[in-house]
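Hello,

Our lab assistant flagged a job as stuck in the queue for most of the afternoon. It eventually completed. Since we weren't sure the result was trustworthy after the delay, we are filing this so someone can double-check. Below is the sequence as submitted and the structure that was eventually returned. Let us know if re-running is recommended.
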Amino acid sequence: MKNFFFLMFLLLLICLCSCNKSNTGTTTKNETPAVPEVKAVFINGDSIHYIEIGNGDPVVFVHGSLGDYRGFKGQLDTFATNHRTIVYSRRYAFPDKQTVNDSLDYTISPHVRDLSEFLKRLNLGPVHLIGHSYGASVALHVTLDHPELVRTLTLVEPPVISLLKNKTGGDTIWKNFETKFKIPAAEEFKKANNERAVDIFVGGVLGDSLAFSKIPETYRNMMMENILELRGFALNSETFIQFLAMRLNK
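-- returned structure --
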């Protein structure tokens, strides 16, 4: 379990760090680095923001929790050499403006509807779909619901916690994580101590209580711009994970 969550956040941080180093065009010392235009498409009653670059078979990236479209900027140039490469911010992530009345009502369903409609609206045809963490679960749901929209599916650390049930001591591992980190983070969210909640959760994931404070301020700020999903995950007792497990076991 510790390795699972460590890789989830490590991948996010690698992506964020790489976006700081990557340019999408050539520059001189006095030029501003060229970056793709941020576009928006209106679907399911809201604006969803995305960027795209390159030509060829479409590749769509789906980010995880505490992330947004900026997390994949480091991959854009490489994939764009042969593909139409698209990264978008899921509902509630920067710079999208959606809110929810109560995080207890937070579910994966709107994200699944958004992604399927996003693929249809951009008329992409079957795509190479790459999902990370929570985004991997979204991508998997869309593939199950609309296989005609997906050419290939790549899942990076999809959080299917129910698979622990097949391992000796698996239930204990998850229960310990809930007791020590998920529940305490939820309590801090309830008191509007959002940064402390993220601090607890990231510390639990990385196995270091000081982990969040060691992250460069720029990246901590980016995480804090995308806390709604983590808040919903922490506050919900029945998460998308159990829902996905039921579907896969049918």
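-- support follow-up --
The delay was a queue issue, not a problem with the job. The result is valid. The CA atoms of residues 53 and 85 lie 5 Å apart. Residues 2-18+35-248 form a domain with the Rossmann fold fold (CATH 3.40.50.1820).
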